[in-house]
Amino acid sequence: MAEQYKLTYFNGRGAGEIIRLVFAVAGQQYEDERVPRDQWPQRKPDMPMQQMPVLTITKGGKSTVFCQSGAISKHLARKFGLFGSNETEAFLIDEMLESLGDTMRDLQKAMFGTDENQKKESMKNFKETSVPRFCRFFNLRQKEFGSKYAIGEKLSLADLSVFNFVDQITRRGFGDVWDNKPVVKELYELFELVQSDSRVKTWLDKRPDSEF
């Protein structure tokens, strides 16, 4: 019996969007449950880590709720052939995801800090240090191990994660970071490549308006 999937998250992109992108590219049907914020206090105690997103997988009448966006997206990517063609590529994809996560955490410091001066300094660090550092790393790996894609010869979770990174930064009003063309050129070209993928485009054309 085939597995059935339900993704539960807020009506936002955030940590849930990478999972939706994996489902879109895989052509896998799933229930996209979007929890209104006023219902979250009632739903929170039922979550494994009292946070979202969570993925409910049902098979043979048994349902299990899994948490952690990274673990969910990696599991699905492996299942749907989006985690490289061999162990080395899988290693490199995982490495890129963690490096991208470090970069996103630097952005979060700038977005969610409490001290305004510190937030300004964190944003400066994100734009002038964190993004160029990740771009240099991306260029290094793509040149040695990639093709038009980040790692290997086909679309993977690494590409979808880079796309999601660029997309969310732009949506949050920090798109000027991509004006530094010599630094971000290859990364932004990958964003445009993934954006043009028919499976991704279909999802982008139909995805609901969201709060964030």
TrEMBL record:
Alphabetical list of Gene3D superfamilies matching this protein: 1.20.1050.10, Glutaredoxin
SUPFAM superfamilies from the UniProt entry: GST C-terminal domain-like, Thioredoxin-like
Alphabetical UniProt keywords: Transferase
A GO biological process held by the record: glutathione metabolic process
A molecular-function term among this protein's GO annotations: glutathione transferase activity
Domain GST C-terminal span(s) in chain numbering: 86-212
Pfam families: GST_C_3, GST_N
Domain GST N-terminal: 3-84
Entry protein name: Glutathione S-transferase
Organism per entry: Sinonovacula constricta (Razor clam)
Lineage: Eukaryota, Metazoa, Spiralia, Lophotrochozoa, Mollusca
